[in-house]
């Protein structure tokens, strides 16, 4: 496994692999790797011949007061995880490598970034799409892999790739969960022991949603109220949003129909956690 | 010469050329080709082995009330010009090929788009950078060629390429002028005979600026006043702006220093014309 710190070196490594006819898979991450990331790496290894992982805590996607400073950066452990997972190249640029001068150029995706997390994290998706555009241009992969846990991010990036005719495919992999149902996230490690006991209520509320839809409940408000009751079992959980939206347009649905995305964001203490489920009502 | 109407076909043609080790040069245009475009094609042929020209009147860079509808589209003559100039592929996509669905994703370049034409054409540069990002992703050239006549456009696109780590070079070619000094432009054909007689005053005003700087005049206001006097010789000329700015940052300069861009935009009747000169005071 090679570790590339510069744009030039990662480009050269990918170029050499491509010249051998290899298909390039790319997993962009902010490090603090966990089994969710490993599942993305495994998916990349399955579909591609050469796997590049980037580890870069991107400052432009954090808002003021968010956790950019305290975001975990266990580089040594991350590299070990990559090595064991069979990664070919890990790209670990410094901030000055990615942003050598004031960044003036931004990607903005309209509409799809206005709901859900976009309402609570102004500028976040602009930072995400901008750094992904940069990384896609640097790594030039055939396929990039993202997790369903960040559902809105995946939808926004897919739209950017389509609108900009970027020459790669986006593959979205299923959310990986702990035995207790909590979606695996680098931010879970911020939780105290007692907060960890309450956090699985997030997925419980989503399972409730799934069951209600399966039972034929079609009114979003009714479902959201039931979900809220579950989350309110733990007073430490502060609900940011519970939204039932069209899975393509992210527009709020009053009546359950078609492909439905139910997404939840909460704060437990100062830790912000998100999760979601996709239900295709037609395929039920 | 091949004419490609679809993204897929132009990609295949470029891919085949690249697989033969050819260097790809790209000249994006809106058609209505003239000797200015030909100079870009010639520059591309000189530096590259395979030249792609795109002809696409991009709707997203025209504002309401601008000349999108009446913009000239002499496709047959354009193709003949390309053939004679030795172009390898002309990419002539329909609007539905470039924008198959509502475009939600935009490139925005901050600061550099706020001055000069940016003040008078809101959204224009966002349309330009967005379509260039799309075209660069479609054609995947090694070098793209732009004209110095659209000075701000060239600076904005260069910045986009740098900020987004796009894997291509931008080459800016000198403005091509008629014998009377008027910068060649597709929009010149809108001018009536009498307007054509007045239009060379634009370049005359820029030559005056050049001379004043050469004579040691360092006060921008003094220079702009002299330029305005020249343009006011023709009452049909309405000045939109006369700006003296830093050639890198596009910030207004009160005192002439360093690399200076003097840019003029006027309306003659309903025709909007722009022109500029670059003066490097250090190299004078």
Layout: helices, strands, pairs:
The structure is a homodimer of 284-residue chains.
Chain A: E1 2-4, H1 7-19, E2 24-29, H2 35-47, E3 50-55, H3 75-84, E4 89-91, H4 95-98, E5 105-109, H5 117-120, H6 124-139, E6 143-147, H7 151-163, E7 169-173, H8 193-198, H9 201-214, H10 220-231, E8 237-246, E9 259-268, E10 271-280
Parallel strand pairs in A: 1-4, 2-3, 2-6, 3-4, 6-7
Antiparallel strand pairs in A: 8-9, 9-10
Gyration radius over CA of chain A: 19 Å
Q: Report the sheet-strand fraction of chain A.
A: 15-25%
Average pLDDT metric of chain A: 97
Shape of chain A: globular
CATH topology of the largest domain in chain A, anyone?
Rossmann fold
Count interface residues per chain for the largest interface.
A-B, 28 and 28 residues
| Whole-number count of domains of chain A | 2
Report the oligomer. homodimer
Distance between the termini of chain A: 44 Å
Write the CATH homologous superfamily of the largest domain in chain A.
Answer: HUPs
Structural class of chain A: alpha/beta
Question: Approximately how much helix is present in the residues of chain A?
Answer: 25-40%
Describe the structure in your own words:
- Two copies of one chain form a homodimer.
- With 284 residues, chain A is of the alpha/beta class.
- Chain A folds into two domains: 2-173, Rossmann fold; 186-283, 2-Layer Sandwich (Pantoate--beta-alanine Ligase, Chain: A,domain 2).
- Chain A has ten helices and ten strands.
- In chain A, the strands form two sheets. A six-stranded parallel β-sheet of chain A has the order 1-4-3-2-6-7, sandwiched between helices. Chain A has a three-stranded antiparallel β-sheet with strand order 8-9-10, with helices on one face.
- Chain A is globular.
- Chain A starts with a strand and ends with a strand.
- The relative contact order of chain A is 0.13.
- Chain A binds chain B through residues 7, 11, 101, 103-112, 129-130, 133-134, 137-138, 140, 159-160, 162-167, and chain B through 7, 11, 101, 103-112, 129-130, 133-134, 137-138, 140, 159-160, 162-167.
């Amino acid at each position: 496994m090679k570790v590339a710190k510069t744009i030039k070196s990662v480009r050269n490594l990918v170029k050499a692999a491509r010249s051998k006819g290899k298909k390039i898979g790319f997993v962009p991450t902010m490090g603090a790797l966990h089994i969710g990331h490993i599942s993305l790496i495994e998916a990349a290894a399955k579909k591609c011949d050469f796997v590049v992982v980037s580890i870069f805590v991107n400052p432009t996607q954090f808002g003021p007061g968010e956790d950019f400073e305290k975001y975990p950066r266990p580089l040594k452990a991350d590299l070990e995880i990559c090595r064991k997972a069979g990664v070919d190249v890990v790209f670990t640029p410094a901030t000055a490598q990615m942003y050598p001068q004031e960044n003036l150029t931004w990607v903005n995706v309209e509409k799809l970034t206005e709901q859900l997390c976009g309402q609570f994290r102004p500028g976040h998706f602009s930072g995400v799409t901008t750094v992904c555009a940069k990384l896609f241009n640097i790594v030039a992969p055939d396929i990039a892999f993202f997790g369903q846990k960040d559902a809105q991010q995946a939808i926004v990036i897919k739209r950017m790739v389509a609108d900009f005719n970027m020459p790669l495919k986006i593959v979205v992999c299923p959310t990986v969960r702990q035995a207790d149902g909590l979606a695996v996230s680098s931010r879970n490690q911020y939780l105290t022991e007692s907060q960890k006991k309450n956090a699985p209520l997030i997925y419980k509320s989503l399972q409730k949603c799934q069951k209600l839809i399966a039972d034929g409940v079609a009114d979003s408000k009714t479902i959201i109220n039931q979900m809220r009751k579950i989350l309110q079992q733990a007073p430490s959980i502060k609900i940011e949003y519970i939204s039932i939206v069209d899975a393509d347009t992210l527009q709020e649905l009053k009546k359950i129909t078609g492909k439905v995305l139910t997404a939840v964001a909460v704060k437990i203490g100062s830790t912000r956690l998100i999760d979601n489920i996709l239900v295709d009502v037609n395929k039920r």
